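One thing: mind reviewing this one?
=====
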Amino acid sequence: MNEIFRQTLLLDFYGALLTQRQQEICRMHLLEDWSLGEIAQEMGISRQAISDAIRKSEASMEKTEQQLHMVERYVYLTESAEALEELVLRDASKEELLESIHTLRERLIPKVSE
């Protein structure tokens, strides 16, 4: 997966856990494609402070992702839905469709030990 796309997903899922200032800096950098210099000038702080804020924000969001796996699941669901759609469009057998659905369910819903 493209690193910028991954960072954008992390911001979508976990951005609310950042401070307002971190959110604004990350939004400007990732979503609006501002350079570090442009953000620094707008915020009235150094480029190094912007770089540090981005690095700290990314680390925080990555740590949360390692615990929750929401982005990983989102990507897996999206890819699985596309694969199922492909099977339907190519008129796959009922068995192929069921096998794909079972695989998806097993990966997303952990079995509870009895």
The mean pLDDT is 92. DSSP finds six helices and no strands in the chain.
